[in-house]
Amino acid sequence: MQQDFLQEKQRQRAPSARALATRSKILNAAEQVFARHGFDAASMREIAQEAGVQVALVTHHGGSKEELFWRVVARRADELSQARVDALEARRFRGPLSVSAIMECHFGPYLEKAETGGAGWFAYARLVAMVSADTRWRDLAAVCFDPTAQLFVEEIARLYPETPPRAIAASFVYSVSALIALLTTEWRMQALGDERESLADRFDELITFCTAGITATVQQDS
User: Can you tell me where the transmembrane regions are (predicted)?
Assistant: First the structure.
């Protein structure tokens, strides 16, 4: 599936405020249902029930189930990518970049949105995990996530010009998996004795963990 699939069909007039509100309600509902059940087990009927609309409206605003999943994932991707790029550009003005600084710019915007932007961002982390784990979403990842991820990988690569690109890419993916784990399995940390309630309290710990992993990996492969 190609990027232009996500583009809305041109209309003679802009959608009404009511139509936009209905679409937002459907996308929010779909995000929760997909996060709860996964793509295969989610049903359009349950999404409609969650949104409080008829199934026909879900299809009208979202298309098929696969199209709807694409729309739900893409909806937050641009916002998150822009926040990460902005953080990286702002950090450049403060001096030379380090691995920890680069990862702070990648992780910080998501953790801030998860803390302040509502439950949808936690549900979205589960969708990101699904996309990352299933090759059928390769095209979706290529459109929504890979350009920004590649930018950050290249920033790390500049610090280690003698390290094979595959090692840097692998260590970056491991680090992103750690971020997703924090956002989706916080309850496990609490069950095992970490009773902190704020993601901000775990931010430095996450950065330290991932920086150490990336540094060890690139040193081993240099």
Answer: none
